Amino acid sequence: MLSIIIPAYNxxxxxxxxxxxxxxxxxxxxxxxVSDGSTDRTIEVVKKIWPEAKVIEIQNNIGKGFAVRQGVxxxxxxxxxxxxxxxxxxxxxxxxxxxALTHCDIAIGCRPTxxxxxxxxxxxxxxxxxxxxxxxxxxxxxxxxxxxxxKDCAKEIFxxxxxxxxxxxxxxxxxxxxxxxKVTEVPINWREIPGSKVNLVKDSWRMFWELFKxxxxxxxxxxxxxxxxxxxxxAGHN
Length: 238
Ligand SMILES: Nc1nc2c(ncn2[C@@H]2O[C@H](COP(=O)(O)OP(=O)(O)O[C@H]3O[C@H](CO)[C@@H](O)[C@H](O)[C@@H]3O)[C@@H](O)[C@H]2O)c(=O)[nH]1
What we know:
Blueprint: E1 2-7, H1 16-26, E2 30-36, H2 42-49, E3 54-58, H3 64-74, E4 79-83, H4 93-100, E5 106-110, H5 118-135, E6 146-150, H6 151-160, H7 168-179, E7 183-187, H8 202-223, H9 231-234
Parallel strand pairs: 1-2, 1-4, 2-3, 5-7
Antiparallel strand pairs: 4-6, 5-6
The chain binds guanosine-5'-diphosphate-alpha-D-mannose.
Guanosine-5'-diphosphate-alpha-D-mannose binds at residues 7-9, 11, 34-36, 61, 63-64, 67, 84-86, 143-145, 166, 169, 196-198.
């Protein structure tokens, strides 16, 4: 079974299209939408299109990372897909990531760079370089909002995650690297959808701070034994 987790903050105008598209192809999936502090009709739109959806509503706005962690806790599917609410990833791209899971634990979309504004591209490239330099991660597109995990691996990783904002994308991959999970990047089609919630000034600072925090959390977790090799990897099941 597939669980789809969507962190959503004031997404009434964007979430409808991807929900309709995904429902037509993956209608049996368990959909979990996590909204923290949305002040618009996001939840109504979700319930109208996908009445069986599990909706987690939190009163205050905390951030995408916090929302994703709550969603993963609730997920029961064997495969967990975490995706953005804007519908940038066409639904049939899921097949490519699902196929990749036959030889890895985490498959993440790798987006074409066309379609983004110059400044967004520049900030994204600088952030990516700093991430690779400070963490040794080999992943090119850590921030892609379309990622698929095997269930146990998602549960272990997100249970150890601590950051609440957009830094979760890097923290989860950093933990995957430390636990010894195999990550594959898969080139996917992508549609740039207007209406991003990312504030280039405020969120960039927060993402750098969360990168620093994630590196430290992993380091401390390894020192105190909270973070070690994953149970399945150390048992040789991988
Ligand atoms: N629950 C919740 N969800 C949030 C919040 N902030 C953003 N989100 C959700 O996070 C997703 C990504 O936000 P977008 O508004 O679509 O921004 P984007 O520019 O397309 O995001 C890109 O950059 C982010 C930062 O690098 C990436 O995290 C994201 O996956 C994507 O690549 C959307 O589903 C949005 O609703 C929040 O505070 N709470």
